[in-house]
What does this fold into?
Amino acid sequence: MAQRILIDPVTRIEGHAKITIHLDDAGQVTDAKFHVTEFRGFERFCEGRPLYEMPGITARVCGICPVSHLLASAKAADQILAVSIPPAAEKLRRLMNLGQIVQSHALSFFHLSSPDFLLGFDSDPATRNIFGLVAAEPDLARSGIRLRQFGQEIIAHLGGQKIHPAWAVPGGVRSALSKESHAHIRSRIPEARATILDTLGRFKRMLPSFEKEAHIFGNFPSLFMGLVGHDGAWEHYDGQLRFVDSAGNAIADRLEPRRYHEFIGEAVESHSYLKSPFYRPLGYPDGIYRVGPLARLNVCSHMGTPLADQELREFRDRANGTVTSAFRYHHARLVEILAAIERIERALDDPDLMSERLRADAGINQLEGVGVSEAPRGTLFHHYKVDEYGLIRKVNLIIATGQNNLAMNRTVAQIARHYIRGPEIPEGMLNRVEAGIRAYDPCLSCSTHAAGAMPLQVRLVAADGTVLDEVWRS
Amino acid sequence: MRAGTILVIGYGNDLRGDDAAGQRAAAQIDAWTLPGVEVRALHQLTPELAEPLSAADRAIFLDAHPVSNGADVRVHRLHPANPTTRLAHTCDPQGLLALARAAFGRRPEVWWITIPATDFAFGAPLSPLTERGIADALAAVRLLLAPSRPAADVARAPRPECTTTGAAARPNREAS
It folds into this structure.
């Protein structure tokens, strides 16, 4: 008698989603699907808009990572203008992206996930939040808030505002970094570096306590994809794409991002508005791959900065190579924050950064462009086709959360398989499913991340429609 | 942010019609260039605002409030939310206030001014109701900022000075 568990809703506002867990006749979990039931339609309503509006429009895709869309969009437009942007413009865009990585990862770790680690996955959801963290670890909570503030300030100093800065434009950026902003950012680096080093130390000491979670939270073989530099270094803005398998073998390397359609396919399922990209040579769904912090640390040869390189070695040593557990996304985020802070400091030492030559002017010189960058959650593709007047004819966006869709399905199934033993929903499963999803930091909406408070409905349904068990958490 | 200052935060989506009310009001207050008053126009409230909020003596939030028909600007005295509140990528003023107190040990006196709003369509202009509401909200802010009129007086004031016709800003209740 086949059965089904329904978790609905997973989210409460922008990114409505639900989860179904399918059981076989013996009551064993066979599959899980993470459904996104909200349709936003950016790809369609951008059609007909002028190319020059695209960075500003697509930054509105998200209030959480607008910088990522802004940069990928500007890069796609650079290609359509067929320009090489001024060096200072690229360096400033990189600086903003590093600020975005710091602020996004800091919020994911300190505000949303650390209450699980420090207060316990099964602690009272009413206090398993930032306030509970403040009560238990006030210094850590305060420094986490200030670390995110540091990243947000970089974005605001460059773009004029933290959310939706209309600053990166086709051909470059609108404005330079002022001397005052430069000095302010530099003044905050020592505290930011001390915070992340302290946090990394704490997290590594806690890891042995979470062996079970690390074992069942999305711990399975898959491919990993991310940008790497020309020397294989960790990359966040440009470079080429690399796929590695779970043994660490590069199965495809030096892939030109603008030819992504040759190696990435996009499956569409009737149950979700979230597309499911896959590695085309292996087909769907065998071509499952993961993106984001864990993937970036698995695909790169080195981080390119001293402290982060040391942490990368330790990160890999703990897994004897490629890290396959989604639980370690949290660890990877901390390593990436450290790398970002080191790179920010290095960028500030570059005299080119203060150049006033920031924008290449050109008309429409190509009718197609693909902009790719690394968003905090993974590789982001913006693909535009325009007419000779620069009006958008077609848009394709491939977002990080979509690329992790197959992996999130499998993660939920793995967690459920561990906990479900019969026709009842066991205590503790909801918290683990919630935390398993949160490990990927999916950008469906804020509420997916609502620590300890994710509204969940789990329903166990038999093939004949009988509700065997049902649990609600509002 | 220096201690002893007043923090004014207007927030909302400036592309969605009346939702821009908070930001528009903040921009006008910023143009007053008042000493000791820091003004921020923001798309949304985020957790890291807790620190500057904790350093202020007084804070004023301005936001659009959806109404189905005509309504007044309302001025609420805020107290920190229950610490079980959800804080993620975005916050509400009470949650921020609670975070300021919990994490930084201090919270300012906070007022929340809501401006009536009806049209949240993309690219829509401000509705006449919200235009009037912004004017009323600015009058209420002037009262709250006036050094000779402490907050307690504002709470007792039946109507703000400088109010426009129509909806009037009047402090009306405390939200907790």
